Amino acid sequence: MPSSPSRRNPWRSFPLLAALAMGGCASDEFTLEADLPGDFALAGDAHYSVPEGSHCGPATESTITRRLFTTPGYNDRPHRVSYQVPLSVRSGGCNRVLSHVRIEMDGESATHPQDVIASDISFANIAIRTQLARGSTGMPARGARIFDGRCRWLLPNSPAAERQLECHASDIDGHWLAGRPGGELQRDQLAGRTVRLAIGLAPDIPAAEQHDAQTLTAVDSSN
Predict the structure, then answer these.
(1) What is the dihedral of CA 42, 197, 183, 149, to 10 degrees?
(2) How do the domains of the chain map onto residue ranges?
(3) What is the DSSP string of 147-190?
């Protein structure tokens, strides 16, 4: 009696097919969100560098900069913007990886063309590392990684001077922290995830008092 042909389990290959399908659709970008005060505009530049150990020819620039986004204008109320940030690009026949994102926060619609340093602009930075230092906070298991910050206007000491925008990192309660808003992220944790820059607006203070105020109380955006 001839043996019956073996019957293969059609579900045995399903995990492999699923893995291949997921791998083929794997994201090479992350979502960057920013919560901004109403008067603020935003612009972001991504810096891409040749990975360590790669060789792209002697004439190839080691780092290139690409403008990621510019908000279309100012709003009357606090608002959120969202952009997709590629984790790698190819330029000049060379693959490059994201090294950091520099974010320009423009606090008012007035222009200051004669100023060497614009009084209404401050910055946030997000650095992308291959490996975070021990003890650094990486991406959470789920949800967004949030970097808090506060901005305030330093009021001039004389009528002829202009007010100046000052932005710093903060904790969620508005306490002043050293450095600009933003922080560090690990590259291999970012694909398909969301990073949010949450910027609140603190009360104005006289410029002479800027070194004395250590707590920035955010203005309630619900009013």
Answers:
(1) 90
(2) 28-209
(3) EEEEEEEEEPSSTTSPPEEEEEEB-TT-BB-SS-SEEEEEGGG-
- Start-end of H helices in the chain: 14-24
pLDDT tens digits, one per residue of 43-81: 999 999 988 877 776 556 778 999 988 887 777 888 899
Q: What whole-number distance in Å separates Cα of residue 32 and Cα of residue 46?
A: 12
Rounded Cα gap, residues 207 and 21, in angstroms = 57
Nearest CA to 118 out of 167, 176, 177, 78 is that of 167
Amino acid at 126: I
Q: Which residues contact 223 (CB under 8 A, 6 or more apart)?
A: none
CA end-to-end distance (rounded Å), the chain = 86
Q: Cβ(32)–Cβ(82) under 8 Å?
A: yes
Q: What is the pLDDT of residue 110?
A: 61
Specify the 3-state DSSP secondary structure of 5. Answer: coil
Q: H or E stretch including 88?
A: strand 88-91
Count CB atoms within 10 A of the CB of residue 88.
Answer: 13
